[in-house]
């Protein structure tokens, strides 16, 4: 009988290869999705993400967003590695076209956090609860951030790990929205997030913990990202988001101490009436009981028997301000209508 022998070293190598292949086979894609990126309800790009299970409670998410703005293509690629309970262990981001903060890397171990961004670096003690941040927070990264926040008992403030001093996030559940899409009811939880971008974001999560949509006014115009399955109700989500933004503005308005109320005059500003007529220098605008009751050049308008706010503004655009007087929003200038 003929016998074959395999050298012990080769046998060990084969076993090692087999173990590696079995280990790699455990890396399963457990989640995938695509968001449409909208500006003023017009689609300008997409974001696609994938979540892979690495085993032992570890996950890695990769996401790439691409959109065009004023003829220029922008691409952001992010990789987020997580330990159990969605705790970030690494967040890396690359953006094109290149800017001073287009490359960033945050690494988290058991005791410390190291960050590199905008040509600088920083190391700090690891907070008990915190999430990694970067210059651009794609929808998929925000989705994992929300899962982390929920799994960590929804703290009133969530610190964000950035190379600079960043204000903690304030995440609030503010309502629920129900829509009908393709013959089924869509139920979403609506949140606001303060301090992540300029102003407050509005974000919707579905019942399975996926981010359905996010809306931001950071650029001055509403920008939305909508998960593909919720694209049929994108318009209704935008309407809900604008309503929430108005509620947020009203809330901010109530936090500002008014400089004057009742009857008062704003004097000395340049007045633009919105009709195309020449601007009026050194103008007077009279407000009484929440309405503009007079406006014009100094000496042509009767001042109320009340306090006049001299040099209140360098520029007064009466067309916009008339609308905001009626709407009750004062752009943070501290006048109570």
Would you mind describing this structure in some detail?
The chain is α+β, with helices and mostly antiparallel strands. The protein folds into two domains: 28-255, outer membrane lipoprotein receptor (LolB), chain A; 264-327, Roll (Urease, subunit C, domain 1). The chain contains four helices and 20 strands. It has helices at residues 8-25, 139-151, 234-255, 318-327; strands at residues 28-39, 42-55, 58-69, 72-83, 87-96, 103-108, 112-117, 120-125, 131-132, 160-161, 170-181, 184-194, 200-205, 211-216, 223-227, 264-272, 280-288, 291-297, 308-310, 315-317. A 13-stranded antiparallel β-sheet has the order 8-7-6-5-4-3-2-1-15-14-13-12-11, with helices on both faces. Strands 16, 17, 18, 19 and 20 form a five-stranded mixed β-sheet that branches. It has a two-stranded parallel sheet with strand order 9-10.
Strand order of the largest sheet: 8-7-6-5-4-3-2-1-15-14-13-12-11
Mean pLDDT: 82
Give the strand tally. 20
Query: What share of residues are in beta strands?
Result: over 45%
CATH classification class of the largest domain: Mainly Beta
Give me the number of helical elements: 4
Elements, N to C (H/E): HEEEEEEEEEHEEEEEEHEEEEEH
Could you say what the CATH topology of the largest domain is called? outer membrane lipoprotein receptor (LolB), chain A
- Which percent range fits the helix content? 10-25%
**Main sheet attributes: strand count, strand direction, barrel closure:** 13 strands, antiparallel
* Low-pLDDT runs: 1-6, 8-15, 17-24, 311-337
Shape: elongated
CATH architectural name of the largest domain = Clam
How far apart, in Å, are the first and last alpha carbons?
103 Å
- Class inferred from helices and paired strands: alpha+beta
Rg of Cα set: 27 Å
Indicate how many domains the architecture comprises.
Answer: 2
């Amino acid at each position: 009988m003929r016998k074959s022998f395999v050298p012990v070293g080769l046998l060990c190598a084969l076993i090692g290869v087999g173990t590696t292949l079995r280990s790699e086979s455990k890396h399963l894609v457990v989640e995938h999705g695509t968001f449409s990126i909208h500006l003023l309800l017009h689609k300008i790009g997409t974001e696609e993400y994938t979540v892979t299970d690495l085993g032992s409670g570890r996950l890695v998410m990769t996401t790439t967003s691409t959109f065009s703005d004023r003829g220029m293509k922008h691409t952001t690629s992010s990789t987020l590695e997580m330990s159990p309970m969605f705790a970030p262990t690494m967040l890396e981001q690359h953006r094109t076209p290149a800017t001073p903060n287009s490359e960033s890397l945050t690494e988290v171990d058991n005791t410390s956090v190291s960050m590199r961004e905008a040509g600088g670096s920083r190391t700090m003690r690891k907070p008990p609860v915190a999430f990694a941040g970067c210059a651009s927070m794609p929808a998929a990264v925000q989705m994992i951030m929300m899962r982390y926040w929920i799994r960590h008992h929804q703290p009133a403030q969530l610190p964000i790990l950035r190379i600079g001093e960043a204000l903690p996030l304030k995440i609030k559940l503010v309502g629920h929205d129900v829509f009908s899409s393709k013959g089924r009811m869509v139920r979403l939880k609506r949140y606001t997030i303060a301090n992540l971008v300029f102003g407050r974001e509005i974000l919707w999560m579905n019942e399975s913990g996926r981010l359905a949509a996010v809306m931001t006014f950071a650029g001055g115009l509403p920008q939305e990202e909508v998960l593909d399955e919720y694209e049929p109700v994108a318009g209704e989500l935008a309407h809900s988001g604008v309503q929430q933004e108005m509620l947020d503005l009203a809330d901010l308005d109530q936090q500002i101490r008014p400089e004057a109320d009742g009857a008062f005059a704003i004097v000395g500003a340049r007045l633009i009436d919105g009709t195309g007529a020449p601007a009026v220098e050194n103008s007077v605008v009279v407000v009484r009981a929440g309405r503009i009751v007079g406006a014009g050049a100094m000496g042509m308008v009767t001042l109320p028997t009340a306090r006049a706010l001299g040099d209140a503004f360098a520029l007064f655009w009466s067309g916009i301000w008339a609308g905001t007087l009626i709407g009750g929003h004062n752009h943070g200038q501290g006048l109570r209508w």
